[in-house]
Design a protein that fits this description.
Blueprint lengths: L2 E7 L3 E8 L4 E8 L2 H13 L10 E3 L5 H6 L6 E3 L2 H8 L10 H15 L11 H34 L1 H7 L9 H9 L3 H5 L3 H10 L6 H12 L8 H37 L4 H5 L6 H11 L9 H8 L4 E5 L2 E5 L6 H14 L4 H12 L4 H22 L5 H4 L14
């Protein structure tokens, strides 16, 4: 007898429903979010035939957390149903629009009972791949947080200290640079910055790691800081300086987190067997490769075809056709992290691959705007990555971008 389980996940408790192949409710319960609750759930599944040889599939509205990690032991299939998709299924079971946690658990169990082939189970990624995913996503979040704090600090400096923004506007990294953060920590107001002697500016830049053109850049900074400019009232300027110092503490912390997570991510990624294949592709370094591996995993059965992977990444177009209307456009439902790193990969490959650059320029000549051409290049490179990972072979420029046949010249001889 086929048995299915649905779990309505919540922060403090979880509702469980177990049904048979006809949809009959066999058992239901509410468990706590802890070891005792998880054991009650496993015992309940075992009472209804769950075993290593024939595990009961489970549908739940999340794909992470300790509960999911507990259920993923062995070969059990876990279906993480999107909450939006679950809400659509809810209308199939009643028109009154009623909702309850036990009812949602029953509805989730019925989803995999009736439409299991339409839903993809969680990938059986290795432990190393899962650890790379945790680190790569954390590093990406830290980079986004760093930019957010930089934007807040920049907005504040525009109000009372625009000369500091001008001093570092053409420098890579901007306000997140070590020398910029060190100078701003010592002189958070225009009055203090104007009093900085050249020797101290030079010393701070060297302590921040600068090795080239230090003296010339220190003279430039001193000139910028001492230039005549409008000022806030002294007390207001001092208060804004304290606010900038507080934001700077946050920026220092997030910059340190970005660096630490980047190092840990690179170490974990290079230890993975897929790393040499990914690194053979133009435009893929340790960070981009780790982010790609984090989103596609190393379960090669997850994407049966390259088209499935392209659709998951949002690189493949979507078609909407009805009657005489036919529309082809980009996908809006996709893995946003993979789509984001895909554009970084495509852009970086332009300088590392003559074939990729020629493909991009050919698309641009054909009428594509910049992002369209990059998306099309990402689509092509993603298909090549799917093939190389399955075949366990590195990237080959001559195969990936074969040169066009040259036209023959002269007269043919008989």
């Amino acid at each position: 007898m086929d048995v299915f389980c649905g779990i309505d996940w919540a922060e403090g408790h979880h509702d469980v429903a177990v049904i048979d192949g006809t949809g009959k409710l066999l058992a239901k319960c509410r468990i706590g979010d802890g070891l005792e609750g998880y054991q009650v759930l496993l015992d309940l599944l075992a009472d209804h035939g769950d075993s290593v040889e024939s595990p009961i599939p489970v549908a739940i509205e999340t794909g992470r957390g300790l509960l999911v990690a507990t259920l993923r032991t062995g070969t059990r299939q876990i279906f993480a149903v999107n909450p939006m998709a679950a809400s659509r299924y809810r209308d199939r079971h009643g028109v009154s629009r009623k909702k309850s946690d036990p009812g949602d658990a029953l509805m989730l169990a019925n989803i995999i009972r009736t439409d299991m082939p339409m839903h993809r189970p969680l990938a059986a990624d290795t432990e190393l791949a899962q650890s790379v995913a945790v680190l790569a996503r954390a590093q990406q979040d830290a980079v986004w947080n760093r930019q957010q704090v930089c934007n807040q600090l920049r907005s504040l400096l525009r109000e009372y200290f625009p000369a500091f923004l001008e001093a570092f506007k053409d420098k890579q990294g901007g306000l997140a640079r070590p020398d910029a953060r060190r100078i701003l920590a010592v002189a958070p107001t225009p009055a203090l910055a104007a009093k900085l002697p050249l020797s101290r500016l030079t010393a701070m830049m060297k302590r921040a790691g600068r090795r080239r053109n230090v003296e010339a850049d220190a003279e430039r900074l001193q000139q910028v800081f001492r230039r005549e400019a409008p000022h806030q009232a002294p007390l207001v300027e001092e208060a804004m300086g304290k606010q900038a110092a507080a934001l700077l503490l946050q920026l220092d912390a997030v910059c340190e987190a970005v660096a630490d997570l980047a190092q840990a991510t690179e170490e974990a990624f290079r230890a993975h067997p897929d790393a040499p294949i990914m690194l053979s592709f133009p435009g893929i370094g340790s960070q981009i490769g780790a982010r790609i591996l984090a989103e596609i995993g190393d379960d090669r059965t997850r994407f049966a075809t390259a088209g499935g992977l392209k659709a998951y990444a949002g690189a493949a177009p979507i078609t909407r056709a009805s009657g005489k209307r036919h529309y082809v456009g980009r996908r809006f439902v996709k893995n946003n992290r993979l789509n984001h790193v895909g554009h970084l990969w495509a852009f970086a490959s332009l300088s590392g691959s003559a074939g990729a650059d020629a493909h991009y320029r050919r698309r641009r000549t054909g009428g594509d705007w910049h992002m369209q051409a990059l998306r099309h290049l990402f689509n092509r490179m993603l298909g090549q990555l799917h093939h190389c990972l399955l075949a366990r072979i590195p990237f080959d420029e001559t195969i990936a971008f074969p040169s066009a046949p040259q036209p023959t010249t002269g007269t043919a001889t008989v």
